[in-house]
Design a protein that fits this description.
Blueprint (H helix, E strand, L loop, with lengths): L3 H6 L16 E2 L4 H11 L3 E6 L4 E7 H14 L2 H8 L4 H10 L15 H10 L4 E6 L6 E7 H11 L10 H4 L16 H10 L4 E5 L5 E6 L19 H4 L12 E2 L5 H10 L4 E6 L2 E7 H10 L1
Parallel strand pairs: 1-2, 8-9
Antiparallel strand pairs: 2-3, 4-5, 6-7, 9-10
Helix pairs in contact: 3-9, 7-11, 7-12
C-alpha cells in the first residue's frame, strides 16, 4: 500500500478540493477595515490577495497583518487613530508600508495539479499555515483554493489506512514542544501576548490560573474581536476581558496526554476542526502539539 508520503505524492491538490466549496479572495484595493469584517463573518484567518491591475495573485492578507498594524500604532500613536485609519487604508497601501518597513510579504503559491506531498513540503519548509493554489496554465492566474496542514492531515486521516505509527504515543515519538513554552495568566495584558505572537512566531498562548492549571487559550484569531462594534481598543486590558466577546462558533480547545497515540489524534482531526492540541499532565499545560509536528512525523514514517 505504501507510506503516507507515497500516498501524498500520488495525490494532486486539485483532487482534494470539494465540488462545492467557499473561497474568500480580497482585491488589493479593498479597505483593510472591510477585509477584517469579512474574515470575521466567514470565520477564516486569512485570504489570498488578487491584484486586478496585473491580474495576478500577490500574497495573503492575514490576522498577523492586523496584529502588526496594532503594534505599530500602540507604540507610535494610539489605537483610536489606528481604528480611524483603517476606514481609509487599503490592503495595497498596508502591504506597501510593510514592504518599506522590512516586513516579509511572502507570495508563495502552488499549481493545483502539484501533489499534496509537494504542498506539505512547502508548508513545512516555509513555516506556513496555508498555501494558495494558483492555476496559471492559460497565462492568466486563477486562485482556485487554499491548502492547509489541517486539510492535508484530514485527508490522511480519511484515506490512509494501517499507518505504522498509529499506535505510537507522543511520549514514544517525542512529538510536540515542551521546552520554553510561552504561557499567560487571565490578568496578562493583551499587548504582552500580541508581542509573543510576533516575536516568538507562535499562533496561540495557553492561559493558566494562579495554581498553574490550564484554563483557556488565546489564539491569533481572537484579536479580530477588537473589530466588533463597541469592543475595547485598549491593548492593555487583561486576557480575561479580551476573550469575553468570543464567538459561540469558537472551534474549541483540543487536549491530549503524552500517552495519546497518533491514531486517536488523527481520528479527532477526521471528526473535528483542529488547530493544535494542548498536551496536559495533571491539568497542567505540559506542551503543545502542532499540526506541523504531526504532518512532519507522518511524512517521515
Amino acid at each position: 500500500m505504501g507510506t503516507v508520503a507515497d500516498r501524498l505524492r500520488a495525490t494532486s491538490c486539485y483532487s482534494m478540493i470539494p465540488v462545492s466549496s467557499k473561497l474568500v479572495v480580497f482585491e488589493t484595493r479593498m479597505k483593510v477595515r472591510h477585509a477584517l469584517t469579512v474574515l470575521v463573518q466567514h470565520g477564516v484567518q486569512s485570504a489570498p490577495l488578487w491584484d486586478a491591475t496585473t491580474q495576478q495573485f500577490v500574497g495573503m492578507f492575514t490576522v498577523t497583518d492586523f496584529i502588526n498594524l496594532l503594534l505599530h500604532y500602540f507604540y507610535n500613536s494610539s489605537l483610536e487613530e489606528a481604528m480611524q485609519d483603517l476606514e481609509g487604508l487599503t490592503i495595497r497601501s498596508l502591504k506597501a508600508l510593510q514592504s518599506k518597513s522590512g516586513v516579509d510579504v511572502p507570495t508563495i503559491s502552488l499549481h493545483p495539479l502539484q501533489s499534496l506531498h509537494e504542498a506539505s513540503r512547502i508548508l513545512l519548509e516555509n513555516h506556513l499555515y496555508r498555501l494558495p493554489l494558483v492555476d496559471d496554465t492559460q497565462n492568466v492566474e486563477v486562485i482556485v483554493s487554499v491548502v492547509t496542514e489541517f486539510k492535508i492531515l484530514r485527508y490522511i486521516a480519511e484515506n490512509c489506512q494501517d499507518i505504522p505509527l498509529a499506535k505510537k504515543t507522543l511520549r514514544e515519538l517525542g512529538l510536540g514542544t515542551y521546552k520554553n513554552l510561552k504561557t499567560a495568566g487571565p490578568d496578562t495584558p493583551l499587548i504582552t501576548v500580541l508581542n509573543m505572537f510576533v516575536n516568538d512566531k507562535i499562533s496561540a498562548v495557553p492561559i493558566q490560573d494562579e495554581n498553574g492549571l490550564f484554563i483557556d487559550i488565546y489564539e491569533k484569531y481572537d484579536i479580530l474581536l477588537l473589530t466588533k462594534e463597541g469592543s475595547s481598543t485598549d491593548l492593555s486590558i487583561p486576557l480575561s476581558q479580551a476573550l469575553a466577546g468570543r464567538s459561540t462558533e469558537f472551534a474549541g480547545i483540543h487536549t491530549c496526554s503524552l500517552d495519546e497515540n497518533i491514531g486517536n489524534i488523527l481520528d479527532t482531526i477526521r471528526r473535528m476542526t483542529v488547530h493544535r492540541f494542548i498536551v496536559l499532565e495533571d491539568d497542567r499545560c505540559k506542551g503543545i502539539l502542532s499540526l506541523s509536528d504531526i504532518l512532519r512525523c507522518l511524512l517521515k514514517s
